[in-house]
Amino acid sequence: MSYVDLQTTLRDWAYEPEKISVRKILGTDGSVRIQMRVELGILQMEADGRPDDVHPHGCDSLLTYHQKQLARHEHRNGTLLGFGLTREECQELRQEASLIYRRFIAFFVLEEYGNVARDTSHSLGIFDLCRDHSLEPEDRVALEEFRSYVLMMEARGRAYQALEEGEPASALAHVNRGILAVKAHHEAFGQGELAPKSEEIRILRALGHELNDQVPQDSLIVTRKALRAAIEQERFEEAARLRDTINKRYKNQL
Q1: Does 236 reside within a domain?
Q2: 225 part of a folded domain
Q3: How many C-beta neighbours within 10 Å does residue 86 have?
Q4: Range of the domain at 222
Q5: If you placed Cys at 230, which of 193, 195, 202, 239 could pair as Cys (CB 3.0 to 4.6 Å)?
Q6: Per the structure, how many domains does the chain have?
Q7: Can you give the pLDDT at residue 218?
Q8: CA atoms within a 13 Å half-sphere pointing along the CA-CB vector of 107
């Protein structure tokens, strides 16, 4: 077996500490791959499936494998009770989440927002599986500190994808859902008072303000947002008026 010195390649693509450097290449087999420049070299990832091109238990990912196992358990037993993930299985799932994290960051830099949404959804699937079915208490919470960040990235990915499709109202809806999801996560851990100060919510609100200027002011999403604000602030006459507007003007969109 012969080995190739990468020094020339690394010199041609200098590492920049303050920048996430990513590029797409065409592999020798014709497949598209993602490369990320890191301090001591280059990470290469598959664009589809697992980034490391591993097929655990013949599946495209560990998440898919365990979801199938969960479905089989429920089919055999009529309940999800009794299904559990061992410490080793949770560790393997966390490793897969780490691989997916690197790739959705790369896709965000490449502005491939549909793939960002796909990979963040995969990550959140792993988070949910470990939270709901780990046998060890520490494994149930091991990934939860990262949930707010992934929720934010999913919302941004879906919002920018909607913008590319010419749907600013849908983009704003994704941002608002992301904000609510981050708030709910904080509240689930008894940290509701920290949500308004979180960096994730700050970033999503800033994006929401940008999108507000692009959304027609008589759109359904804007009217629903105004209705929600009126109810929260106990302005019930205004809320009733907005509810009537939704029922009359947007009945075909409900």
Answers
A1: yes
A2: yes
A3: 12
A4: 218-254
A5: 239
A6: 1
A7: 56
A8: 29
